[in-house]
Structures are given as C-alpha cells and as structure tokens.
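Hi again,

Forgot to attach this to my earlier email, sorry! This is the prediction with iron/sulfur cluster bound. I've pasted everything inline since the attachment limit keeps bouncing my files.
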Amino acid sequence: MNERDSEALACLLEADGAVSTDSEEDADLIVFNTCSVRDQAERKAIGKIGFMKKIKARKPGLVVGCIGCMAQNYGDKLLKDLPVLDFVVGTDQIHRVPEIVKDILRTRRRTAETQLDKIIRPELDGHHPGAVVAEVAVMRGCDQFCSYCIVPHTRGREKSRPIPAIVEEVKRLVDAGTREILLLGQNITAYGVAEARQDGTYTKDFSAFADLLAAVNDVPGLARIRFTSPHVHFMNDKFIQAVRDLPKVCKCFHVPLQSGSDRILKLMRRSYTAAEYLDCIRKIREGLPEVNFTTDVIVGFPTETEEDFHLPLFAARGHEIRAGLSGRRA
Ligand code: SF4
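Structure tokens for the complex follow:
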C-alpha cells in the first residue's frame, strides 16, 4: 500500500510541475513514506530522515517530509524530534501534500496533518503508465483490530471505493499497456462490508469483493488479477465461487494463517479457528487442483508453547507444505 501511495503522490506532484530525480543531492523536495509494522522499520526511517540534516545544511531551501504509517502514528511529535522535517502528513491526507509543499515554500511554516478521513480520495488514482503489473487500491483501513497489528490505528477504519471508479482506473491502466492488476486492501475480502453494515444490507452471503472481481474480470484486454490480503473470516461461498470460476483471477492465493493453535488465534483476535481456515482452503481446492497457496505464520507470539508452535504443521497434515521462513523464532 505504501508503494501504491508513493506512486499516487508522485503523480500528483508531477501534475503540479515537479520532475523526479534519482539523487537526493539534486532534489528540492524529499518525502519519506514510512512503515510502522515493525520497530526496525521505524528506526531505519528515523535514521535516514536525520541524515537529511547534512543535505539541508548545504541546501537550506530543501523541503523534507514524512508520510505513511509512522507519520500517522506520531504526528507532530516527529516535528519536535526531527528538526529537519518540514511536514508530517498522515495516511489519509496524502492528497494534500502538493498544497502543503507550496505553503511551506511560501511561509517556511512547519506542519503536521494527521486527520483520518471517511472516504478514499479520488485524487489518489494516478499511475505511471506502461507498467505490465499495476497496483490498484480498492479499500483502506481495517476494522479487525488483531491484537498484534497497528494497521487499524494508523490507517483508520475500513472504507471502500465504488466498483465503477475502480473499473475505470483498471480500464485506463489496460489502455496504457497494463496486463496484470494487483488489487490492494489491508483486509480486502471485507471490501464493501463497512458500507453494507451501515446501510443494513450486510448478510453472511454478502461479498462485494466477489462482485468487484467479476467486474474487473470483464475488462477487455486484462490478462490477470491478483489481490492481497484476504482474511478467512470474510471468505464465504460467494467469494470462493468467484475466485474458482473467474478465469482472470490467478489460482495462487496468499491466505494469512498466523497460527494453527486456536488458543493463540483467539489471543491474536483472528476471528477464525484452524479448522475454519482449513475448511476454506479445502473449498477453494475442490475442482481446482492446480491451485497454490502461500501464507504467513507468526511464531513466538506471547504465551505460545512448544505444542502451539507445532500445531500449524499438524493442522495442515495431508497438505503439501513448502516453508520459506522469513523470520526467526523469537
Ligand atoms: S486483519 Fe490484517 S490489517 Fe487488519 S488488524 Fe488483522 S493483521 Fe492487521
């Protein structure tokens, strides 16, 4: 999502007359798009932003900004801690960056803007044309509040874009040469759920995401559709039928498991059991033998025992497992 936000902001700045450069030394404006998912990501960003002091000493007119989850999380505290920063802009105010930069160039007044919004700004639909694979943000935020995750606090509550606006964006991309679309949402299978709950149309058979997949599947010239990240709780039969039947939806799904222990899943507030997870995988596999799955598993979660640790492997017995470990057991 940060990559997508960076591209959308670059398009907004370019529409305002900016040109990009490969060198920090040449830049008049440097914006750091930050992540709060791990402490190390924050420490790296703080170190790198602090390093801008040297460039600014040689070039006092340089404008330095911080956007993204860390900006949302700390707000004006970052302005106090990092005097080199001219602005801090949260996850829902990125569309305002061009205006904020102009204001800073005029007044040299430092600012922090971190209000969360109720809608997804249409200004953020810009892309650099010609990429074979393009990312399209379809919803933002998350209402799940998993106990280990900062997303609902830094990206706010779930909100989804209307299907026609997304299809228009996909059509523009395909006309410019794109063949594969990666649909993005923090909790993408809950696409449209918050809005349906508000207007009273939400039922357990509801899957606006299945409707969205069907609408994107109909775009002529598009070859492949992928999406990330789904949550098992919202993967109902309508969704499963769509991913099985729509020919452009790639038959390779990333479905975060997080733990095979129901006790740990409950502590994580994941709202499904290991058996429900496996049931969902089994339903997608029915009639679709070529399907592949990837997953995430958190190990070393507080209070996890040796027995809990081994449960994902026991729970997945009968399924082929090829593990690619990207972390070490805490
Ligand atoms: S569903 Fe995903 S984004 Fe939402 S709180 Fe849980 S881990 Fe975070």
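DSSP finds 13 helices and eleven strands in the chain. The mean pLDDT is 93.

That should be everything now.

G.
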